[in-house]
Amino acid sequence: MTMGYWEGTGLGAQGIQLFWRIWEAANPSASLLLVHGLGEHSGRYRPFAEALAEGGTSVFAFDLRGHGRSPGPRGDVEAFPRLLEDLLGMEDEMGRQLPAEGPRFLMGHSLGGLISIRRLQVFKGPFSGAILSAPWLATAQPDWLWSVARFLGLALPRVPLPAGIHPGRLSRDPDAVLAWRKDPLIHTKISGRFFREADREQSKALVSGWPQDTPALFLVPGADRVVKSPVTLAFSRTIVGDDIQVEILEGREHEPLNDIGREEVYRLVLDWLANQVEAKPGPKKASGDLP
């Protein structure tokens, strides 16, 4: 099956031009918008996106502001709502670039998971479901360290601080760790105000309702040392409905899509998407429409 790939830029909040990539399936039955994590970029998801495209789901991924090939100071954001506005802009861009029929899904990893959750809680449509990989709902760091970070968020809001990202806590695969170290687009910074904004949004996410009739797949690494998996599990249990699937990935580090056994995780996602497409097919043409 032949897959298409192309790149471009699209309009985010406040006129920012964000870099995006598309992996298009030859005969797509669905499309997925992917939001990456803190310090990384959309290009790291190429093997996963190719697997989805081969399986019939086109993937649109973009670099958050201050990340990858998108402009902006590294690891900084004026206010968290800018990230939500950026995502809305990328949804519009995805619609222009991938106008194919079929349900549309949202996927976010880590910071991207928090952004995806808040987007679904704050705005309606157009997604038929969400995949949340190790969403950043709480950080696996000592409380005293977060007290210091909160203080610095007020005292030095724009100063970049170490984000505590270490490749050994992301994956057990030595090749993935080496690729992370050599990647010139990766950074390990977060500003005080970015932390403060994320901390506030985490609190909102945990007490806000989940959109009704929105299926979700939670990918929860069992050995995550970056985010607190128990908080993610507790959050998933607050969602009432039969369409919430939680997969605890025993022994996996924070990035299950880059860890040992990633092919198993790819298959989990592909199977979940296939089930959702079968349950919620795309819009049908009216009987009076031309073929």
Give a topology summary:
Blueprint: E1 4-11, E2 17-24, E3 30-35, H1 46-54, E4 57-62, H2 80-97, E5 104-109, H3 111-122, E6 130-133, H4 143-155, E7 160-162, H5 174-182, E8 189-191, H6 192-207, E9 216-221, H7 229-237, E10 244-249, H8 262-279
Parallel strand pairs: 3-4, 3-5, 5-6, 6-9, 9-10
Antiparallel strand pairs: 1-2, 2-4, 7-8
Helix pairs in contact: 2-3, 3-6, 4-6
Instruction: Give the DSSP E fraction (strand runs of 2 or more residues).
Output: 15-25%
Overall mean confidence score, pLDDT: 91
Cross-sheet strand order for the largest sheet: 1-2-4-3-5-6-9-10
Give me the number of helical elements.
Answer: 8
Verbal overview:
This protein is of the alpha/beta class and 291 residues long. It is built from eight helices and ten strands. The protein has helices at 46-54, 80-97, 111-122, 143-155, 174-182, 192-207, 229-237, 262-279, and strands spanning 4-11, 17-24, 30-35, 57-62, 104-109, 130-133, 160-162, 189-191, 216-221, 244-249. The strands form two sheets. The protein has an eight-stranded mixed β-sheet, with helices on both faces. Strands 7-8 form a two-stranded antiparallel sheet. The longest helix is centred in the N-terminal third of the chain and has 18 residues, at 80-97. It starts with a strand and ends in a 12-residue tail after the last helix.
Brief rundown of the structure:
This protein has eight helices and ten strands. It has helices at 46-54, 80-97, 111-122, 143-155, 174-182, 192-207, 229-237, 262-279; strands spanning 4-11, 17-24, 30-35, 57-62, 104-109, 130-133, 160-162, 189-191, 216-221, 244-249.
